[in-house]
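tool=predict chain=A
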Amino acid sequence: MAELGQFLREKREEKGWRIEEVQAHTKIQKRYLLAIEGGRYNELPGAFYARAFIKSYVEVLGLNPEEVFSEFDHDLPKPSKEAIEFPSRVERAKTKRSPESKKSTTVLPAALVISFLVAIVGIIWFLNIGNGDVASDEEEGSPNQEEVEIINEPQESGNNEGDGETEAVNGTEEGQGNNGNHEEDESGGLSYEETTGNYNSIYTVDSASLEIELVFEEGIDSYVDFREEVGGTIIEVADPPAEALEQEYDFSEYDTITINAGYTPSLTIYVNSEELEYAVDPEERDLQNITIEQNG
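tool=predict ok
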């Protein structure tokens, strides 16, 4: 029997607990708990799940996961990290969540078509006016009052249109400025507050809804579960990345939710469609807790 498994079993028996009681507290299947106690990590669904299950087991026993992991580091399953190059979270977010980029591809062709039509209409108008002037000169020899008015009206109209265009441009710029400020206000819904012990970063969101999206990088194993507080009872366990790279969860009924993330370098988190920026660099600390508190 493995050292760590023996240690956990002894601590469980000291509390007088049966394995079923640990299962009730951790929401981990009994066969997985027995596999941990027996050191049969190959029976668990991946190395990251093994480490996450062990962490939950340790916390339920009232022990410090950091100390236990440090003491039994030689006995813990080691996740394999594949050397795969992926776009950064920022690049992926721009690609996935920037509808403006799609709009820009259609605006240019439309502008060219409109310019071409305006040019054709202008040429036809010019030719019609020119023919009318020639006919009038041949019949009467000089322009009458109506012709003078016809010739002058386009100039006045052009001036008015110019003023209108200036006002329209100014109005558009002002409108864009207002829209920009509005977007910034909306994007400020998710705010970082502080990082406490156990690498728990706390954020607040000014919304009555709490929708969380997880985006995993392909080919890299990871583990995520959701709790009402750090070290608390597991509410839900995310599907393995091999089953779904993008997963959405709605926790609007909870005032606070804690995301227990097993490997943050391969995980992007969105809260109400806004990307969460890690307060702790994932390259320095891969296992993190992320707590989201609702203020709405």
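The longest strand covers residues 190-196. The first helix runs from residue 3 to 14.
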